[in-house]
Amino acid sequence: MVHSRDGIYPAVCPLDCPDTCGLLLHVKDGTISKVAGNPEHPVTRGAICNKVRNMAGRVHHPERLLYPLRRTGAKGTGAFERISWDEAIAEITGRYRQLMDEYGAQSILPYSFYGNMGILSAEGMDRRFFHALGASGLQRTICSAAGTAGWEYTMGFDGGTSPEDTVHADLIIVWGGNIVSTNMHQVVYAEEARKRGAKIVVIDVHRNRTARWGDWFLPLYPGTDAALALGLMHILFRDGLADEEFLVKYATGHEELREHVQQYPPERVAEITGIAVDDIERLARLYGEAQAPYIHIGNGLQHHDNGGMNVRSIACLPALVGAWSKRGGGAYKSNSGYSATNADALRRPDLKPQKEVRTVNMNRIGEALAWTEEPIKGICVYNSNPLVVAPDSERVRQGFAREDLFTVVHDLFMTDTARYADIVLPATSSFENTDLYSSYWHHYVQLQEPVLEAPGECKSNAEVFRLLGQAMGFDGGVFGQTDEELIREALDYENNPYLNGVTLELLQKQRFVKLDMTPQAAFLESLPTPSGRIELYSRAMELEGLPPLPTYTPLKEGYDGVRRPGSGAAYPLMFLSPPNHHFLNSTFANVEKHQQLEKRPVLQIHPADAQARGISEGAEVIVYNSRGTVELTAAVTDSMLPGTVVSQGLWWEGEGRRQRVNTLTPDRLSDMGSGATFFSATVEVRLSDGGVEAAGSGL
Ligand SMILES: Nc1nc2c(c(=O)[nH]1)N[C@H]1C(S)=C(S)[C@@H](COP(=O)(O)OP(=O)(O)OC[C@H]3O[C@@H](n4cnc5c(=O)[nH]c(N)nc54)[C@H](O)[C@@H]3O)O[C@H]1N2
Ligand SMILES: Nc1nc2c(c(=O)[nH]1)N[C@H]1C(S)=C(S)[C@@H](COP(=O)(O)OP(=O)(O)OC[C@H]3O[C@@H](n4cnc5c(=O)[nH]c(N)nc54)[C@H](O)[C@@H]3O)O[C@H]1N2
Ligand code: SF4
Ligand SMILES: [Mo]
């Protein structure tokens, strides 16, 4: 099955990136000599990012884990001994049986995300195993949960404009998304639109790579996007730029909205957002007069206390101008709905011994590990690196340092999290497995078949949970299924008409298969909202105690609407920690090539804020708040409005340098969807005195 011969083989990029590229792996002597984009993949069209062009450095990294390990020293010190798989599986199942007897199965918690986007790797045997065990459930809300909730209240369906169609847009607004780094093929489509005359507007809190590429950059204060959207709606109604015919036909509540947005005149919105009145007026005119305006809603504005409402408010805009009925117009927040597979068949929630199990929000993992009532006694981490990616990371570290917590980590590397494990299991790279991939942006489903031999004793997620399930004595029919059987079950899903015609056989033949997009033509006629229409006014929100109309609410820890510190503001600077260009969340942060490309973790600070603190370019600074301290190198730049500082990238803990930015971020939950609020953080910054303070990381 595995190709041992030299050659060029198709593959799929497994990373949590909307582009889900088709790849070509050049293999020589059993190793990758080159990774290229597949020129035949209709969206990839031969182009891939620099991160994955350098993927061989990760897959063949000398520090890849090759054998199961058992801890021999204190947690966090990285002292382990090699054990066999038989010993590892026996120890895990033995401990799980003990915990179940003593504390109940819900004392065990899985912790996973999408380190590998493969459906079998992220949502298959693993889910079956924890369901059958009766373990606590995990709310996987770290990424886009707030925005998904805000979008679905408005549109009902987790889908929007098709990527290929955006070449026909004549105005593209990239709102809270750094697509040059995070969705490069959308940039390619936008370039095509630009050649046909489209303007590209970027709305962001800092002049990122995307802002530098766009035609017009509008910097604003963090977490004020809903106010801007409401201000635009105010002007659209005021100036007769709303598409009344469309609203009558497809929306609910436009009269209430017309009335409501009178509270958001441009002068007030300028004060809240930091954008000049003239610019708000100009943007509204551009939007209202465009033939087919398209909005790309990024993740940045979702990671806030008011993240759900930011998306909810922006999601109303296309309806106001009737953009949904223009080719290329509309908006994208996620297109996951189009490619939904049969989750129940794959994950088997019916295996749960009891219907209701406790769920734990992954954003609150630090707090959850400190519960004294019904404590979590076992945690199994895979596809994720919570010590680096979860908020309030010092609290997370303290949780993982608990001597009485039985921790299993399955990963390719000895991550910051794995160092705290009792048992570490070596994971295959995605190129060593069979898996099914769909995109949350484009419409192609892809198949990965093994290209490389697994090194050492690495095993895939599916294989690990098959072994664990069988060792626990769970149903052999469920835990004995092959990868191919699982894929067939996932694709057999009549509730999703877009999956029509996507089969394993066709995937084996073609590698990628386009979803059947014909139902999209009737998209507006069959929205799954309670009213069946675009809900500008949402009764469902009202019933849940949320404002039924889009509304601006200030951040909890930031500034209120007129730049006075809000109720919970303890520190004077807003701290933003979005992804960087060469890492994928915390993936690649340990690969030399990628580290060199990023150089080092820096803090971007405005000249006015730097001067007030005696900070000059290149100075070593301490960034701190009540949660902890991080050490970074200052980059003085006017890329942000004063009062905002930015550090891109999720670095692992440095040698003698505390640089995990999530030390500073709050574990509060967003207004809807129980999402993360990484970017609603405040900090103070001072020059480093050269010494490293005593408290903090134990790494
Ligand atoms: N190179 C690279 N690509 C990636 C990733 C990566 O780590 N590196 N991560 C992947 C994942 S998991 C995801 S979810 C996506 C995320 O990718 P994007 O959707 O692009 O989202 P972010 O990069 O989190 O944030 C985008 C921008 O929003 C800004 N922002 C922050 N707060 C606000 C605000 O209040 N208002 C506005 N308007 N802007 C704000 C941030 O500063 C940032 O410039 O990218 C994926 N692709
Ligand atoms: N401050 C701040 N924090 C953030 C963000 C931010 O913008 N700012 N972004 C947030 C977002 S949007 C997201 S999605 C999360 C992402 O958080 P995570 O999903 O935890 O992402 P990664 O850091 O890339 O960690 C994935 C881990 O999975 C491992 N892995 C890869 N493939 C496999 C496999 O096949 N099997 C197993 N067992 N392991 C595998 C990788 O080696 C890696 O260690 O981070 C969030 N955290
Ligand atoms: S990270 Fe994104 S852009 Fe890069 S190869 Fe993977 S899917 Fe394509
Ligand atoms: Mo994400």
Which features does this protein show?
699 residues; disordered C terminus; Barwin-like endoglucanases; 6-stranded mixed sheet; binds iron/sulfur cluster; 3 domains; 18% strand; binds ligand MGD; Dimethylsulfoxide Reductase, domain 2; alpha/beta; 27 strands; binds molybdenum atom; Rossmann fold
At the third CATH level, what is the topology name of the largest domain? Rossmann fold
- Tell me which ligands are bound: ligand MGD, iron/sulfur cluster, molybdenum atom
- 3D shape: globular
Helix content: 25-40%
In words, what does this structure look like?
Helix content is 29%, strand content 18%. It is of the alpha/beta class. It has 3 domains: 69-135 and 342-437 and 444-514, Rossmann fold (3-Layer(aba) Sandwich); 155-336, Dimethylsulfoxide Reductase, domain 2 (3-Layer(aba) Sandwich), CATH 3.40.228.10; 573-696, Barwin-like endoglucanases (Beta Barrel). Strands 5-4-17-16-15-6 form a 6-stranded mixed β-sheet, with helices on one face. Helix 15 links the parallel strand 12 (293-297) and strand 13. Bound molecules: ligand MGD (2 copies), iron/sulfur cluster and molybdenum atom. Iron/sulfur cluster binds next to helix 1.
